[in-house]
Amino acid sequence: MRSMIERLARVRRAWPLLLPALMLLAGCNELPGARTDPANTFAYGGTMARELGDLYMMTFWWATAVFVVTMVAFFLALWRFRERPDNPIPRQVHGNTTFEVLWTIAPTLVLVIVGIPTIQKLFELDEPPPGRPPLEVEVIGHQWWWEFRYPAELGGFVTASDLHVPVGRPVRLTLSSEDVIHSFWPPRLAGKHDVFPVPQTTPWRKNHMWFDVAEPGIYYGQCAEFCGIEHAQMRFFVVAQPEAEFLAWAQRQRQPSPNATDQAGQAAFLSGGCVACHVVTTSTPDPSQKLIGPNLAHVGSRLSLAGGTLENNDENLARWLRDPQEVKPGVKMVLPRPLSEEEIQTLVRYLRSLQ
Ligand code: CUA
After folding, report:
1. Which of 83, 109, 122, 241 is the most buried (most CB within 10 A)?
2. Atom number of ligand 1 nearest to Cα 226
3. What homologous superfamily does CATH list for 263-352?
4. CA of 233 to the centre of ligand 1 (A)
């Protein structure tokens, strides 16, 4: 009994160490996936990410140098002026012009060294590099999903949640919000950019950003500005494809899905009330036309449902249609009445067939 109490006491003394150790471990990546970790900003996916990463590392090493120099000076002073029997109180000094000038100039120099390339990069990275014109996409933030409007030259279609882009070509995004402030953040591709509501009369106030993607793949994205209860479930995916594949995808987007005219599906879409907020269209919306819910023209081919909350499959779509509030509490999708299981199955078949 006694030894057990002693052991417990020892464990209790270890607590202050245990917590930081756990926190450190929580930051660890599994080694094999470390480079592909979806939110790892150091797993550079393109030019913008690498440039920002280089800038970060430059600042990091300067900060490390400052830390080391400061700590060495600090511990030297501790050691040099420690209490000793022969000299209990070190000689007291007040003011030292040389030191004061030095510790004013040194930090100023470090700040200038870090500041100049930072400001240079700020201007350099503002617009995509000259050369091939970038792909222009209009990004509209909604509580809690992302809308993407493609340019007229590609057909001017509208999609949601999946941002398809061609590999190697810069993508320039114009950002605005339909409601509150959001932030567009594809961690492996670019930094966060605020997405705020902009009145029709001042379109030039819209924020913009660009990035390019070096390798085909799916890149995770996340809203990075607290925007309400489902902020965490406001995700998107950048789907980077080789140019030909991307163009084929765009081609499909501007044509209605062959199943869009399915009678039973359309009837359920109307009677279920979906039509109050959703469109199924491949046409170009007027810039002033606001969507309430995502365009469902090709919803069956998207990676996720409910703005990145659920994987896109039959079971999840049925679950979503049964009770959106259960899946994403607070979501703006409200059913006018509960749908019958038969209606749900019809809608699942219909929506999933819109490829
Ligand atoms: Cu949108 Cu957070």
Report:
1. 241
2. 2
3. Cupredoxins -  blue copper proteins (2.60.40.420)
4. 8
Confidence bin at 11 (pLDDT 50/70/90): low
Q: Look up residue 261 and give its two tokens.
A: 């005219």
Calculate the alpha carbon distances from 325 to 31, 247, 266, 320, 339 in Å.
Answer: 37, 36, 24, 8, 14
Give the start-to-end residue ranges of the domains of the chain: 47-86+95-124, 263-352
> Do the beta carbons of residue 246 and residue 202 sit within 8 Å?
no
Residue 219 has pLDDT above 80, yes or no: yes
Residue 4 predicted with pLDDT over 70: no
Q: Residues lining ligand 1, CB < 6 A?
A: 141, 144, 182, 223, 225-227, 231, 234
Q: pLDDT tens for residues 136-145?
A: 999 999 999 9
Query: What does the alpha-carbon distance between residue 214 and residue 217 come to, in Å, rounded to a whole number?
Result: 9
Atom of ligand 1 nearest to the CA of 231: 2
